[in-house]
Design a protein that fits this description.
Chain B: It is a single-pass membrane protein. The complex is a heterodimer. By secondary structure, chain A is mainly beta. Chain A is built from 4 helices and 31 strands. Chain A starts with a helix and ends in a 5-residue tail after the last strand. By secondary structure, chain B is mainly alpha-helical. In chain B, strands 2-1-3 form a 3-stranded antiparallel β-sheet, covered by helices on one side. Classes of the chains: A mainly beta, B mainly alpha.
Chain lengths: 432, 363
């Protein structure tokens, strides 16, 4: 009897363990973060030819992010411009997950109507579709906006294609003298325009969180001086012109303060300058070492900076109101020029190994460092506002150029193609 | 004087009459008083004839009766004999009385003659008249005497007849009684026979009953025996059935166990195939899963998949969202892109993949 009961129980347990009721579930972990295949079909034309190749700009934007792998034009099976022309099976065959189509029309060559539709190929579903009216001059900006929409729709993150880059160019005049310019370009490096020119060096541009002000250092008055310039009006103001060194301004997250490096007391130290009052407070107190290149943590309470107090430059963290600094970098004998990701989790820096300087990221939680670049004179890394890319300057053929690398190091690209030497880039925040 | 004679005459006559009457009364008995007048009124001759006829009839009747009786039974004869003897005695007595009567008459006549002779001288003078009257008187007396004789005889005959009738009645009654007795005897005999028969029948019945009872008892015993036998057989059968049932139960237990083991083996085999294909499917879907780069932080979604035979995806739906539309879509798309999913040829294992789930989560 007992054994029979046992058998029954055993049978029940067997059936219970057998997934007759519960559905078989297969765990999928990992996966890859490879670029997402997307088909960006050249937009159709009606009336006047558009001044910009919108689909090409979008495609390049998406590709530059490292998150998308746009199909080559030659791979496109067909070129629909409207939803009803789409045969999803075709695009599935190409393993394309997204499909972007659109068209541009104009009556006068001045004003254009642009529409686009983004589809999920596997679900045969339109994800987003919009229509715009823009002047010819707005066409490029619109293309970046559409790229942002596509990016955000398909990745869930904000795109940075409508943001801007600031950087300093150095040109040699015919007489051999140098001319410096503070320039702002589209996020792809294209469309640069100069906001400040000087015969003296311009250094360390820094975007205010409002996306409308830049702080930078000039030597135009024969000494280092920190200015804040309003981009929309061009108005600028000197905010730090102390004796000695005035350099490396960094905006606090609330846009009310600047962390700066001053040597007014003899040794370069980190100070916090309250812009509205001009009130200055000293953060670091180490007369034997250089403390510079401050950057605010997103919480606004801590500041990272570079110091050689340990003998070689390393990154330290200190409370914004002073106190004991904590060293963050231990790998390698040179770590400088830190920037912090918008989420505060990643730090990018210039990592020197054997006299070569690469862009690296360090996980602030684990301390793990990953070198992202292989070029040799990389400098001034700056996170994109979505934290996905890092803008930096590097040398190509002995000349400084802009480059960007994805935080995973997979995507590297040159940005812009000006004839000037480019240094000290900074990525803008999102547009307000 | 005259009166004396008359008186004497009348005295003699009265005495005679008295005797006759007495005699008649003796014979007739009580019946005399009942029918004296009708007898007196009957004509004399016819009465005599009737007497003779009656006697004959009686005799005939008697003879006939005798004959009949004699033929039938001797006891009756004896009785008849007695009756006859009685009758003869009565007749003898009657004859003796007759004689006495005649003697008396003789003496009266002698006396009268004497008286007549004595009175002859006295009567001589009136002789003639007296003679006449005397003759007439004699005639009348004679008639009277005749009448009285006749009457007496008639009475006697009647008495006899009555006697005979009584006798006859008695005989009849006796006969009837005898017959009754005989009938009764017969009835009794019959009754007895009947009773005897009944007794015999009763006996027979009792015997039959006894026999039946015995038969019943015997049968009951046989029945009891049979029942016991049946019970024994039933018990035997039951025991055998139970044994058989036990044996079968054991067999079926074994069979079940074998089947169960077989099922378990089969289940293990199917599970092995399912596991193998789950791994293949997992690897394939993994390869096609483009995980959003920002999806590290504990996102997880479950998609339910229906497959067509051959492994093509029929339907994919999010049954448990990660809360992140892009992540969810990446999972759905991964399944679609991985199609056709490898499918086992074993139908049982393949059935597991008709409808199943993926749980997508970054490392």
């Amino acid at each position: 009897m007992f054994t029979r009961w046992l058998k029954v129980v055993a049978t029940l347990m067997l059936f219970a363990s057998w997934p007759a009721h519960a559905l078989l579930t297969i765990e999928i972990t990992g996966g890859s973060e490879a670029a997402l295949p997307i088909a960006v079909v050249p937009f159709g034309n009606e009336g006047f030819a558009p001044p910009e190749d919108i689909s090409s700009i979008i495609s390049n934007d998406l590709k530059s992010s490292g998150r998308f792998a746009p199909l080559k034009q030659s791979e496109l099976i067909s070129q629909p411009h409207e939803g009803q022309q789409v045969n999803f099976a075709d695009w599935r065959l190409l393993r394309s997950e997204g499909l972007l189509i659109g068209k541009v029309s104009s009556q006068d060559g001045e004003n254009y109507q642009v529409q686009f539709q983004l589809f999920d190929v596997y679900k045969s579903q339109q994800l987003v579709g919009k229509r715009y009216n823009v002047p010819a001059s707005g066409m490029r900006t619109l293309a970046h906006q559409i790229a942002d929409i596509v990016y955000e729709t398909l990745t869930g993150e904000k795109g940075v294609f409508s943001t801007r880059l600031a950087f300093v160019t150095e040109m040699k005049n015919a007489d051999g003298s140098k001319r410096y310019a503070l320039q702002i370009s589209d996020a792809d490096g294209a469309n640069p325009r100069t906001v400040l020119q000087s015969r003296q060096p311009i250094m360390s541009p820094s975007w205010a969180p409002d996306d409308n002000r830049l702080a930078y250092v000039t030597f135009e008055n024969a000494k280092s001086e920190i200015f804040v310039q309003e981009l929309s009006t061009g108005k600028r103001q000197s905010v730090a012109s102390f004796r000695g060194l005035n350099s490396a301004p960094a905006w606090s997250p609330d846009g009310k303060k600047l962390a700066v490096t001053l040597s007014k007391n003899g040794n370069p130290e980190i100070y916090v300058l309250e812009l509205s009052s001009g009130k200055l407070s000293r953060v670091t107190h180490n007369s034997q070492a250089i403390d510079t290149e401050a950057v605010w943590m997103p919480n606004g309470r801590e500041i990272l900076f570079t110091s050689d107090r340990g003998g070689r430059p390393q990154i330290y963290k200190v409370n914004a109101d002073g106190g004991r600094a904590e060293r963050l970098t231990f790998e390698g004998n040179y770590n400088a020029s830190a920037d912090i990701s918008p989420d505060g989790r990643m730090m990018t820096l210039v990592h020197g190994v054997n006299g070569k300087f690469h862009i690296a990221v360090q996980d602030l939680e684990t301390g793990a460092v990953q070198v992202l670049t292989e070029t040799r004179a990389d400098e001034s890394p700056s996170f994109a506002p979505n934290g996905r890319m890092i803008l930096y300057a590097t040398e190509q053929k002995g000349r400084g150029v802009l480059a960007a690398v994805s935080v995973d190091g997979r995507i590297k690209q040159r940005l812009g193609e000006s004839g000037s030497a480019v240094r000290e880039p900074a990525w803008s925040p999102f547009k307000k | 004087m005259k009166h004396n004679i008359v008186d004497n005459l009348f005295a003699g006559a009265s005495s005679l009459v008295l005797h006759v009457v007495l005699f008649a009364m003796f014979i007739i008995g009580m019946d005399l008083t009942s029918t004296p007048k009708p007898l007196a009124q009957q004509p004399q001759k016819e009465i005599v004839q009737a007497t003779v006829l009656d006697e004959t009839l009686v005799e005939e009747e008697v003879a006939r009766l005798e004959k009949l009786e004699q033929e039938k039974k001797n006891a009756e004869k004896e009785r008849q004999q007695k009756v006859q003897e009685q009758l003869e005695e009565t007749q003898k007595e009657l004859a003796r009385k007759e004689q006495e009567y005649q003697d008396m008459e003789e003496r009266a006549r002698i006396e009268a003659e004497q008286r007549a002779k004595a009175a002859e001288e006295e009567k001589q003078r009136i002789a003639e008249l007296e003679q006449q009257r005397k003759q007439e008187e004699e005639k009348r007396l004679e008639a009277e005497k005749q009448r009285k004789l006749e009457e007496e005889r008639k009475q006697k005959v009647e008495a006899e007849r009555k006697q005979a009738e009584i006798e006859k009645q008695k005989v009849e009654a006796e006969k009837k009684r005898l017959e009754e007795e005989k009938r009764k005897a017969e009835a009794e005999r019959k009754r007895l026979e009947e009773e005897k028969k009944k007794a015999a029948e009763e006996k027979k019945r009792l015997e039959e009953e006894k026999r039946k009872a015995e038969e019943a008892k015997r049968k009951a015993e046989a029945e009891k025996k049979r029942l016991e036998e049946e019970k024994r057989k039933a018990e035997e059968a039951k025991r055998k059935a139970e044994e058989e049932a036990r044996r079968k139960a054991a067999e079926s237990d074994l069979q079940r166990q074998l089947e169960q083991e077989q099922q378990e083996r089969e289940a293990r085999r199917v599970k092995g195939v399912v596991d193998q294909y789950s791994l293949m499917i997992q690897q394939r879907v993994k390869r096609y899963w483009l995980r959003p780069a920002n999806a590290q932080s504990g996102l997880q979604c479950t998609v339910q998949v229906s497959l067509l035979p051959g492994g093509d995806v029929k339907n994919v739906k999010i049954v448990k969202s990660s809360g992140n539309a892009v992540f969810d879509r990446s999972a759905e798309t991964a399944v679609y892109k991985a199609a056709p999913l490898p499918q086992p040829s074993d139908p049982k294992a393949a059935a597991e993949f008709r409808n199943f789930q993926f749980n997508f989560k970054p490392e």
